[in-house]
């Protein structure tokens, strides 16, 4: 991609209300654009990051046999009345009447829609267990929609639903998904705490949150560094300095970002929406469900909170919008040849071919945070100056060496 053609430019001004690094840098860097509080466009740079995260998520969900599909965001009141959530979620859910006077809402979550499909289609143990997921925008009338895409009113979520005839089978899949989630976060460069939690506003059942320790978070967790013990302070009987109930070390407390949340619903939806299947003895059994959410757009912001410095973002290579940022300083002809060669070798390059000052180009490269900065200038004498975004050292290399370096 040539930077002269990239849709939208970096900005000098920071958003007025920005208090977090992710809000500031994602807007300034031209990754997202605010339409209204809590509602954002993912611009080309931001969309490239989202696409990379989604592909990691897809690989991990497909690896445990889940099937991807897409459900409607526009939903009739009826199915939500069957679970009582049209009333109980009336503050958070966007609800309205259409022109014919029928009540409808925008999906804040999709348990009702998926379970309605399941009850109409699944009848026998032979069709179970299975898991379905989608990556879709959710709508929630959040009061505290500030901080950029960290808490949106329209935001992207991966939601997966698994269906089982026995609790043992559900437990087994739930634990498998915990591992899949850990894989997703670690591939995105994030360390997570798997935290015991209550179901929040969506359920009273058993749940786990995936929390990333960060001052930009809105949650508080009690956790142990020596082992994997962690609880949300909302439900914890422990406080900071207490002995860890698992290993005896001292517990810590910290602010954290909820990057994911998984829930066991057991037979709750079977009872409310009447979903049953026959087991191998011909007996009617409730179809058990668990739900598993990852906040895709919140993950983008979370990664920036963890990886930034005073000059901008520092993307982990797995989710970076490009592999390399090639900068030409009065060497456009040579740089263009390098740009073409790198692309032929499958390397994703943002090529700064603009007519701007070197200072502006370097500042933008730091702000955008692509892992490798490559500079061609009269000073580099036919070679290319390579610098990693998170290091200060520069080295001169030939293009073939750079291809090898980036491929590693
Ligand atoms: P929170 O406690 O942050 O309000 P939640 O518990 O209501 O979130 P879930 O319904 O469990 O959220 O949604 C699954 C995931 O979607 C969350 O773990 C979070 O990462 C993400 N998420 C939830 N609400 C938002 C939002 N308003 N904006 C961006 N991401 C969100
Ligand atoms: Mg939650």
Question: What this model shows, in words?
Answer:
The chain is α+β, with helices and mostly antiparallel strands and 408 residues long. It has helices spanning 21-28, 44-63, 77-82, 85-88, 111-121, 167-187, 268-273, 296-306, 332-344, 358-368, 399-407; strands spanning 32-36, 39-42, 67-68, 74-76, 95-97, 103-106, 130-139, 154-164, 193-197, 207-213, 219-223, 230-232, 252-266, 276-278, 284-286, 288-295, 308-309, 312-313, 324-328, 349-352, 372-376, 384-388, 394-397. The two termini are 22 Å apart. The mean pLDDT is 96. Adenosine-5'-triphosphate is lined by residues 109, 140, 142, 151-152, 155, 157, 200, 202, 258-261, 293, 295, 297-298.
Query: How much strand content do the residues show?
Result: 25-35%
The coarse silhouette is elongated
Number of strands: 23
- Main pleated-sheet profile: 9 strands, mixed
**Ligand species:** adenosine-5'-triphosphate, magnesium ion
Structural class: alpha+beta
End-to-end separation: 22 Å
* Chain-averaged pLDDT: 96
Residues in helix, %: 25-40%
Number of alpha- plus pi-helical segments = 11
Radius of gyration, Cα only, in angstroms? 24 Å
Low-confidence stretches: none
């Amino acid at each position: 991609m040539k930077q002269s053609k990239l849709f939208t430019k970096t900005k000098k001004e920071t958003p007025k209300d920005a208090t977090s690094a992710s809000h500031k840098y994602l807007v300034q860097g031209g990754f997202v654009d605010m339409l209204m509080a809590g509602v954002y466009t993912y611009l080309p740079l931001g969309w490239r990051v989202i696409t990379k995260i989604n592909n990691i998520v897809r690989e991990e969900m497909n690896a445990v046999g889940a099937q991807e599909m897409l459900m409607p965001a526009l939903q009739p009141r009826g199915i939500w009345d069957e679970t009582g959530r049209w009333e109980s979620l009336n503050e958070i859910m966007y609800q309205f009447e259409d022109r014919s006077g029928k009540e409808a809402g925008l999906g804040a979550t999709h348990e009702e829609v998926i379970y309605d499909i399941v009850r109409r289609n699944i009848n026998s143990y032979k069709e179970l267990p299975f898991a379905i997921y989608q990556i879709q925008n959710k709508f929630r009338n959040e009061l505290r929609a500030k901080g950029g895409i960290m808490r949106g009113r329209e935001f992207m979520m991966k939601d997966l639903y698994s269906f089982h005839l026995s609790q043992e089978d559900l437990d087994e899949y739930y634990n498998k998904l915990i591992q899949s989630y850990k894989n997703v976060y670690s591939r995105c460069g994030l360390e997570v705490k798997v935290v015991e939690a209550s179901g929040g506003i969506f359920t009273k059942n058993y749940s786990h949150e995936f929390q990333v320790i960060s001052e930009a978070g809105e949650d508080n967790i009690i956790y142990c560094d020596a082992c994997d013990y962690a609880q949300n302070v909302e439900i914890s009987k422990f406080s900071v300095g207490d002995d860890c109930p698992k290993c005896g070390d001292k517990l810590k407390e910290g602010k954290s970002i909820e990057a994911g949340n998984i829930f066991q619903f057991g037979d709750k939806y079977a009872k409310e929406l009447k979903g049953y299947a026959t087991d191998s003895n011909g007996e009617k059994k409730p179809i058990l469900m668990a739900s598993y959410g990852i906040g895709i757009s919140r993950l983008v912001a979370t990664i920036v909170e963890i990886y930034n410095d005073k000059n901008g973002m520092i993307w982990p290579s797995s989710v970076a919008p490009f592999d390399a940022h090639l900068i030409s300083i009065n060497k456009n002809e040579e740089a263009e040849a390098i740009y073409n060669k790198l692309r032929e070798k499958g390397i994703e390059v943002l090529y700064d071919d603009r007519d701007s000052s070197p200072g502006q180009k370097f500042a933008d490269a730091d702000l955008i945070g692509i892992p490798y900065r490559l500079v061609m200038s009269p000073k580099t004498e036919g070679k290319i100056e390579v610098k990693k975004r998170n290091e200060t050292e520069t080295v001169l290399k030939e293009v073939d060496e750079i291809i090898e370096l980036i491929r590693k």
